[in-house]
Amino acid sequence: MYHTIAYRATSLIRTFALLLALLAASTTAAFSLDLETARSGGLVGEVDSGYIAIPPGAGAEAQTLVGTVNQERRAAYAEIASKNSISIEVAGQRTFEKRFPGFPAGTWVQIQGKWSKK
Fold this sequence. Notes:
This protein is an alpha+beta fold. The chain has helices at residues 2-31, 35-40, 63-84, 88-99, and strands at 45-47, 52-53, 108-111, 114-117. It has two domains: 1-32; 33-117, no CATH class. The termini are far apart.
């Protein structure tokens, strides 16, 4: 009988530990910031160079996201530039021009160094 109680207690502790681990993982994922959420919340804006940046008045909480997204975009622009015999800068600018019409109203954009909301 003692072994049964001990086994159930151990099983309960393991189950509880697993639930805590799952809760911690889902909480971390819930607080992860994605580009669409950051953009719609005014934490990041699109720049005419094809990259994103922190707009006026926004805090630095999206700085990690900015670095990650810009690194991914630079790699994509390098590939586009290579295929089209253009510079990475031109590839970024052209991509911005193509994507601009699809940005939702209220999106921060920086064009020629000046920030405004679309």
